[in-house]
Amino acid sequence: MKEHRIRMTQRSGALLLLLSLLGAVSLLWPFLLHAAGAAPQAHHLDAPFELMVLVPLLLVLCASELARGSFDVRGIAVLGILAACGTALRIPSPGVVGFEPVFFLLVLAGFVYGPSFGFALGGLTLFVSAFFTGGIGPWLPFQMLAAGWVGLCAGLLPMLSSTKKEKWMLAAYTAVACLLFGVVMNLWFWPFGLSGSTSISYVPGAAVSTNIAHFVAFDLTTSLGFDIPRALLNAGLILCVGRPVVVALRRGAKRVRLLPHVDQAHTTT
């Protein structure tokens, strides 16, 4: 089987590592500083700076791939088209009861084109769609990072010779990724969201194990009603229409020469 993804270079890998470290620090600093406060104030000071750093780094990532010849202007156009498609999927789906079908396209595109493309697509899709859905707020950079991680990890999945096994692997990954997306989106505000020493609130200065137990309880009791429908919907879309979408993505990439080596067997099966 020939390699058909955009290979991740040391430069793009370093940028992805930097972006991921930025996201991890942004999520975990409240634990280190024993943060406390009200939910409306969660990350209200640092989120704008994180967004101002994240967007330029995404552009640098795209420019890096463009400079090394991974893809040309037509590849940038493909990224823009897929981001527009993801935005269109988010417009009628404001997250009510987990109805967010954007993740199935993000997973498939990341799987076909590789981790760098998947991360860029995830961040760009959430950034653009925020302007159309009214989703601009301190949560936006964390949504961009979480969606970027979904696309990145999809690009690291192995390619399988059996299309049926590949379909089920992608569906299983999509379900897990949707659940973990919900975990990240809980984590960004949870240290600020509940006051008092309840069994699901963040306790400043408490042992790490205590706060982990409280966070797990919070996640299980408050967000699974959104996360499970999101996981089932996107995994179901992978099973129903995932294969033809993958074939279309690979054929489109071959026509614009986005991917240097496209396995002919994969584009026709």
Largest sheet: none
Average pLDDT reading: 79
What pattern of helices and strands is seen along the backbone? HHHHHHHHHHH
* Strand runs, count: 0
Helix content: over 70%
Number of helices: 11
The quaternary structure here is single chain
- Briefly note the structural class of the backbone: mainly alpha
Taking the alpha carbons of the first and last residues, their distance comes to: 13 Å
The proportion of residues in beta strands is: under 5%
Using the alpha-carbon principal axes, give the shape. globular
Calculate Rg over CA atoms: 19 Å
Number of domains: 1
- Low-confidence segments, given as residue ranges, are 35-40, 261-269
Feature tags:
mainly alpha; 269 residues; 0% strand
Write up what this structure looks like:
The protein has 269 residues and is mainly alpha-helical. It has one domain. 71% of the residues lie in helices and 0% in strands. The chain has helices spanning 10-32, 47-67, 73-90, 102-113, 115-133, 140-155, 163-187, 190-193, 208-222, 224-255, 264-268. The longest helix has 32 residues, at 224-255. The radius of gyration is 19 Å and the shape is globular. The two termini are 13 Å apart. The model is unreliable at 35-40 and 261-269 (pLDDT under 50).
